[in-house]
Here is the input.
Amino acid sequence: MGVVLAIAALVPTGALVFLAYRMLRTAWPAIKFNGWEFFTTKTFTLGNLYSTAGSTAPPGAHYGVLTLLVGTAISSGLALLFALPVAVGGALVLAEKVPARLQDALGVFLELLAGIPSVIFGLWGIYALGPFLSRTVYPAIASLHIPWLSGPVGAGQGLLTGSLVLAVMIIPIIATITRDLIRSVSPATREAAHALGLTPLEGVRVVVFPFIRTGVVAAALLGLARAIGETIAILIISGNALNIYPGNIYSPFSTMAGTIAAFLDGALTDSTGLAVSALAEVGIVLLLLTVLTNAAGRWIAHRLGGGVGLPVGRGA
Here is the structure.
């Protein structure tokens, strides 16, 4: 049994190492071709895939990840900014205010929301949410003439709508984990807080949140990782504007995951193979970004937890 458990524990690590190795092997020709300019060039185009005879790369091809990296970082960051207060507040109300007999029933809706396919979120964003906001909310925000919040709002596609869709997608992840963390707080700890005369709100602020804060950080970063790697939904709603930085919060944009999905079919027709290698290099950057995000989360949780690597805080 011990051997079986040890093998099971090593499977995730082995899968990650194998994945990284295969992607690096596929991307190696593009890495040698691009060099460091891959991170400083904002243009990503496959070039003329119908005239590659005798060429190392397709004519006119440029492989740069800079605009894709910026679009991924901004959209994911905004999604987390929108989702975190809603998710934590909703989990708090669900765990603290809703009667126990209704908590599980209402919690089912969170779990169902997490299971909706991403393409459904994308279609909802482009046909319902985006057009509605562009007719009602966005013009009012743009009229305030605040830098980066003003300008043409478009038809509903773009950075703000894409970030809102991502936020809806990651709310169930953060809220479900936070709800379970709140439930893990010892009843004796809550009773002690009440005995000291703390109001329910003060008890949450002084007792509950310090106990679960490292877990909330972990939940937030798990949601952020989902937002960073989201592909189909963001490809549908982003506008897929290549090689430009968002001019305002309503501008179309592109992400690394969305670009891989958009260009993969064309890249497979490249007889030089460099287009596929370039997309694999983008995938490596995406993988590294995800790993670094999780590593940063573990470091933050370790610091907030007083040097104790627990899923919750120091406790009582």
